[in-house]
Design goal:
By secondary structure, this protein is α/β, with parallel strands linked by helices. 27% of the residues lie in helices and 24% in strands. The protein has six helices and eight strands. Strand 6 and strand 7 form a beta hairpin. The longest helix is centred in the first third of the chain and has 10 residues. 34% of the residues are buried.
């Protein structure tokens, strides 16, 4: 089954009854570029990490753009087997249907059957609205954080919601 397009995604969100607003902009590859070029899009903006553990289990970590995600300790908090590394671009394309620089929780719509464990930052989910790329890095889609949770579940994923700033184990 081919990966969804941004237009397919918009239709999917509408079918789920999720209101969304999408703004187009120049391609954004990093948080820094996003902050400089996105304009005045309100709400929390995300940093998305496509990760793999030592046994090949896949994770999508969705955090506020300014979060410091400690990869060397995160595996303990999310139940990964050993240290985490970034998933290779071809695996990202195969599983989420997106290219590097476009990683987004919306890519979960392409992960079937579900292979990815989704980790959502608690602080991000406390925001009223969340902004994510709609499968491409030339647009930003805004939805309510409760709707992001509903979307993730509708794709067959049950997310782990944790405070990533507490990712460092005690002791």
């Amino acid at each position: 089954m081919p990966a969804m397009t941004p237009d397919d995604l918009a239709g999917y969100l509408a079918d789920l009854g999720i209101d969304s607003t999408t703004v187009t902009h120049p391609p954004l590859h990093t948080v820094e570029e996003s902050q400089a070029l996105r304009g005045a899009i309100q709400g929390a903006h995300t940093k998305n990490l496509f990760l793999k553990d030592k046994k090949g289990r896949l994770f999508l970590v969705v955090a506020p753009e300014d979060a410091v995600v400690e990869l060397k300790h995160l595996h303990v908090r999310i139940g990964a087997s050993g240290r985490l590394s970034f998933g290779k671009p071809d695996l990202l394309q195969e599983v989420l249907g997106v290219m590097p620089g476009s990683v987004t929780p919306f890519g979960l719509v392409n992960d079937h059957p579900p292979r990815v464990t989704v980790v959502l930052d608690a602080a991000l989910m406390a925001s009223e609205t969340v902004n994510c790329h709609p499968l491409v890095n030339t647009a930003t889609t805004t939805i309510r954080s409760a709707d992001l949770l509903a979307f993730v579940r509708a794709t067959g994923h049950e997310p782990l919601v944790i405070a990533l700033d507490e990712a460092r184990p005690a002791g």
